[in-house]
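A reminder from the course coordinator: this example appears on the midterm review sheet, so study it carefully.

Given structure:
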């Protein structure tokens, strides 16, 4: 079936004419956004691999992000404007075709990069660690079964979306517009709640864990630029596509501010620990010169050697080997 036959011929012809006169400014911006999307996810991929754990990343954040990305990618694929652009590649030059499909490529790259996060989350999932809840005084365990369930649900959702889209394209193409809007609404809702479990988890942990701040620093402003670019390309009728990234940028900005605050707090605590540990002689009835080695991890927690911390009393009666009684005359 020719895709053009399922669309209004005059409208489709107008899309082809538009592709033949591309805006070079919009083309340069689209390429910049495409590369920016790819680069923005690399810090997150690297951080998980470098730390060897996906601790600190909520499984529900991964679930909602992956399914939202799948819906967004399927949405732009089945939009009438996108289908017309794909059909126009038969009549326009290769350069004009590539320029016209950059919007689809952007959403596809974003979906692919987040799928990589899903894979890394599963591969490096901490089998014996949980997220501490200081208010409840206990640990909330995200087990290996939870991670596998998240991956399985994402796989089923992706397959179902592909099958339904293909079935409608082959047998009921006039329903594709409504299906695209449904996918766009689903993607927006999933994106809107995607960051809620991650914000809650990061807040309770008190640190970002394996969540990458550089990724959010790039993506937060990039989401608004990307949304504006898609809005200029698809128009108001494509609200279900560019609206996703507008909502995502707002919520990701909230998570970014929280993460920066925790990182600044951790660094200040680290400097405070290093500055408060004395390595000198204290004379108050005894002389002791203990060597105390204190290191801090990425989250500002103290790793103590020799069983001593900055809270260990200088006059510790149990450490007789490290003190000498003064003799008075």
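Designed residues:
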């Amino acid at each position: 079936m020719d895709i053009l036959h399922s669309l209004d011929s005059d409208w489709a012809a107008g899309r082809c004419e538009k592709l033949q006169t591309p805006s070079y400014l919009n083309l340069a911006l689209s390429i910049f956004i495409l590369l920016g999307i790819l680069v923005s996810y690399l810090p997150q991929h690297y951080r998980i691999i470098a730390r060897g754990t996906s601790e600190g990343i909520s499984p529900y954040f991964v679930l909602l992000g992956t399914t939202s990305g799948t819906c967004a990618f399927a949405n732009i694929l089945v939009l009438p404007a996108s289908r017309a652009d794909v059909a126009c590649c038969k009549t326009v030059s290769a350069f004009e075709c590539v320029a016209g499909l950059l919007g689809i490529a952007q959403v596809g790259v974003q979906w692919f990069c987040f799928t990589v996060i899903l894979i890394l989350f599963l591969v490096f999932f901490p089998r014996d660690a949980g997220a501490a809840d200081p208010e409840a005084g206990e640990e909330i365990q995200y087990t290996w079964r939870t991670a596998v369930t998240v991956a399985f649900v994402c796989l089923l959702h992706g397959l179902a979306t592909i099958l339904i889209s293909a079935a409608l394209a082959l047998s009921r193409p006039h329903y594709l517009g409504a299906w695209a809007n449904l996918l766009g609404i689903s993607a927006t809702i999933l994106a809107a709640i995607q960051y809620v479990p991650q914000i809650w988890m990061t807040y309770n942990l008190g640190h970002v864990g394996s969540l990458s701040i550089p990724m959010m620093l790039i993506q937060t402003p990039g989401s608004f630029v990307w949304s504006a670019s898609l809005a200029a390309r698809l128009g108001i009728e494509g609200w279900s596509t560019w609206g996703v990234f507008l909502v995502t940028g707002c919520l990701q900005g909230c998570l970014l501010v929280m993460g920066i605050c925790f990182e600044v707090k951790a660094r200040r605590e680290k400097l405070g620990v290093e500055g408060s540990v004395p390595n000198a002689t204290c004379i108050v009835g005894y002389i002791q010169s203990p060597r105390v080695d204190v290191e801090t991890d990425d989250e500002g927690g103290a790793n103590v050697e020799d069983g001593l911390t900055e809270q260990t009393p200088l006059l510790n009666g149990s450490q007789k080997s490290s003190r000498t009684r003064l003799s008075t005359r």
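The mean pLDDT is 77. Residues 279-325 form one domain.
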